[in-house]
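Hello Y.,

Per our agreement to keep a running log of every chain we model this quarter, I'm adding this entry. I've kept the format consistent with earlier entries: sequence first, then predicted structure.
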Amino acid sequence: MSDSGSDGEVDEPVDEYNRVRGALPLAVLEYVATSIVDEPDGVVIDVEEGRRGITLSLHVTPDDMGKVIGRRGRVAQAIRTVVRAAAAREGVDASVDIVD
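Predicted structure for the entry above:
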């Protein structure tokens, strides 16, 4: 008897057409934003799809805005970099807008 794997499972093909476009960058942004802020229930993310990729608009409470932006915008830039990397893994272009 021949075994296809160490546990006997057969690899199934991944269906690329059933995936939500931009799901990974959205999940990463949600995780990072809710981890940084004091009020995670105040985090709202809007997704817009355009020609150049997806745009994620991050809304937080006014008290948490400083935490998300950081000194000289360093935290905001780090968030954008991580989300862009997650989007690249999916083959999508993503940008993050932090909205008042």
